[in-house]
Each structure stands twice: as structure tokens, then as C-alpha cells.
Amino acid sequence: xxxxxxxxxxxxxxxxxxxxxxxxxxxxxxxxxxxxxxxxxxxxxxxxxxxxxxxxxxxxxxxxxxxxxxxxxxxxxxxxxxxxxxxxxxxxxxxxxxxxxxxxxxxxxxxxxxxxxxxxxxxxxxxxxxxxxxxxxxxxxxxxxxxxxxxxxxxxxxxxxxxxxxxxxxxxxxxxxxxxxxxxxxxxxxxxxxxxxxxxxxxxxxxxxxxxxxxxxxxxxxxxxxxxxxxxxxxxxxxxxxxxxxxxxxxxxxxxxxxxxxxxxxxxxxxxxxxxxxxxxxxxxxxxxxxxxxxxxxxxxxxxxxxxxxxxxxxxxxxxxxxxxxxxxxxxxxxxxxxxxxxxxxxxxxxxxxxxxxxxxxxxxxxxxxxxxxxxxxxxxxxxxxxxxxxxxxxxxxxxxxxxxxxxxxxxxxxxxxxxxxxxxxxxxxxxxxxxxxxxxxxxxxxxxxxxxxxxxxxxxxxxxxxxxxxxxxxxxxxxxxxxxxxxxxxxxxxxxxxxxxxxxxxxxxxxxxxxxxxxx
Length: 521
What we know:
- By secondary structure, the protein is mainly alpha-helical.
- It has helices at 8-29, 35-40, 47-58, 61-74, 80-95, 97-103, 108-115, 118-151, 157-204, 210-216, 235-252, 254-261, 266-279, 283-293, 307-315, 320-355, 361-382, 392-416, 422-445, 452-474, 485-490, 500-520.
- α1 runs parallel beside α16 (320-355), α4 (61-74) crosses α14 and α9 (157-204) packs across α16.
């Protein structure tokens, strides 16, 4: 496809966005002093900053491209990932956030060390770094560069990937988490505005009539709850794998959890999670439904990922095209800055600090800045290779299901069973990843037919059983005494209490989820 010519209003929109991002990043960077500021924003984030940053970090360029594309191909069931995130956030703020507030850790692997031992911390850090580079950062860079080359056309995929990576790494390294979060707020607002305007324009092609949409879009494409054989998100995967993958992403994933750890207190983190949970109810309307509506508007497309760019090209006026690109870049850089900062945090705090305990906070901060740039370059080098896989959405979801589900099982068991010892947990986790390799091999060989959304639930249960088996095998010598610091860390007694308004707002989120399911089931 020949790249369209951007007109002056489009370039003005893009230029204004980049300038404002640099100004906000520079403003945040001026307060940066040491490692606590770089990695946790000085634990000073309020609920709105936490909430908008959680949302913006999650809704990346692969979401803007992937959700409309998936809705075009298989229906709006892809939006189940979005509202399920709201449920997972509610569970996390009740079951996990109070533990984090008590522990005052800097990374999620550090929490695993406090609960188990240093081996578990290194294991989780290594896996998280792998996912951060290969999935989160590289996948986002690939999707953003793909669209950027489509619209502007002056770059190769490699050049666009490298340019975006270096720009994002620059303000992330300079300002740390504070710069990331405050630019996230800006980027979330741009993203919501741009996607909402495009959704309204697309709906306008049907005369803003839902009856007209129903007449031209297949009913199966407008249903959230799908049968077991559905190629999108069948209900079997919805109730088994999606909660597991969602729990890893919204609770254990360092680049998401870092916003929670950077909150000023439990009240700020829990209220911020509720803000994010409410915002996660919007992608169904502003990203997924327009993709389904495209069935009645666009000619047949070669690939579902072309839907969003084609909607912009066909229906967005000039000026708004620039805003749409700004929205895409906003989502892209929010996720990239988040993953870069969190990966640098893990390297500096979980690997460098144990090896260099005498280093000052400033030295740790400097190492984190160097790591930020190096990780960006590594992800930029890998990102163009994703074009050789079957598709971005399948690439992201399948890898995270196989790799993350055993981690979730170990984390949940560690919280629910204080007596679980470090050796049983580590062996159970390792056995779970061996099981994941076997399942993956069986699926690739055609010996086992299982939808990738169900894989997460299977591996979660399998790892739980394997961990309990190791616990029984190792016996009392590996058990954690009930009065030890490891057990007391996760004991529910004495945990900080959530504010009353959190429970009320949580009920509102549940009501919103219920309304979505009632309307689109």
C-alpha cells in the first residue's frame, strides 16, 4: 500500500504531541535525584497518576492494532481481555495490594525473595526480563513501526523501530518512573480522545443507529460469550486461561506493578487501580466495536491488522489523522517507557545491587539509565523479526500463556499457603515450565488440540499440583514455620485496611462489567 501524504494539520498535531511529551518529561526529570526516584518515583504517585499510567501502559500500539483486527476477524470476544482486566484489578487490590503495602518492596521479585529465598527472586527476574524484551517492548515497537511506515513511508521497519526506541529510552532514562507516569497521563488522554473520535465517526457511517449495525454486521461478531470451538475467545478460555494470564499481567508483571509500588500509600494504589479498572471498560466501545463495524464499511482486507489504519485513512479528516497517529504513538511510548524502566529496575536492583552492595543510590540510578538504553536497542533489534511469525496477536498471547501461567500458580500458592517452603516452590515452578514446554511441543506436533486461551488454566492447575507434590515429597524440613518472617509476610492478620470508598467504587466496576456482559453476551 502506498503511504498517504500527511498534510500540514497532521504534521502540526504530531509535532505538538512530541513537543508536549518532551516538556512533560523534562519537567518530571528535573526532580530526579536517585534510584528511588528513577525506579519508584519517590513513592509519591497519587491515584489519578497511578490509574491513568496503568491504563496507558497497558493499551499499547499492539492493542490499538490488535483489538480492531481481532474484532474484524473473529468478533468482539477479543474485548474479553479488557473487561477481565477490571475483575483482576479488583482481586489484586483486595488480595495483593495490602501485602505490598506492608512489605514496602521495590520489585515483585523482591517480594518473592522475602516470601521464599533469593533463588526465586532471580528466577522471576530472569523470566520477567525475557518477557519484557521479547514480548512487551519488542511487540509494541514492531506494531508501532509497522503503522508508522504505513502512514509516513519514509522509513524502513528497522529504522522506524530504532527511532521510536531511542526517543522513548531518552526521556525514560532521564526522568525515570516519574517521567514515565506523568507522560502516561498525557498519553492516556490523547489515546482516549483520538480513539473516541474515530469510533464516533465510524459509528456515524451507520447513521449512529445500532439497528443499522445489527443489520450489516454478523451477530456472531457482536457477542462476548462464544462457544468452545470459537476461533476468537471461547467461553472455556474465558473462565480458565484469561484470569490466569490477566493476573500475571496486572499483578506480577513488573512494569505494571511498578506503578502500584510507586504509589504514596495503599489508598492511592487501590484508588488508582479502580481508575484503571473503569478505564478498561472503554476499549470495547472505542477500539473493538469499530473493528467489527468495519465489516460493513471496508472492502475485504488481506490481513486483519490493516483495519485500524484503513479506518483512519477512509474516514478521518486531515488533522485528525495526525491525532490518530499521535494516539498510536502515545500508546506505543507509554508501553515502551514502562517496560524499559521496569526492566532497568530489575537489572539494577535484583542483579547489580546484590553484586555491588557498596554502590550508592546515584550509582545504581546511573546503571539503570545505561540499562534503559541497552534494553531499548536489544528490543529494537528483535522487533523486526516478529514479521516472520504467524501474527502479532497470536505471538503475544501464546508466549505469555506458556511462560507466565506457572509463575501465577507459584505466586498464588505462596500467598494462600504460608507453609509452602522455598525448595518446593522453586521445584514446582521449574516443573511447571517443563510441563509448559511439553504441552507446547505436543500442540506444535499436532498431538494435542487445545485453544491457546485454555493453556493458561491447564498450566496453572498443573503447576499447583506439582508444587503440592514437591511440598509433600520434601516434607517438614522445607516447611515454613508459622511464626517466621516469610509466613508473617503474607498472613492476613494485621494487614493495612482498604478505604471504604474503594469497596463502593469496586461495586461500581462490577456493575459496569455486569452491564457489558448483559448487553453483549
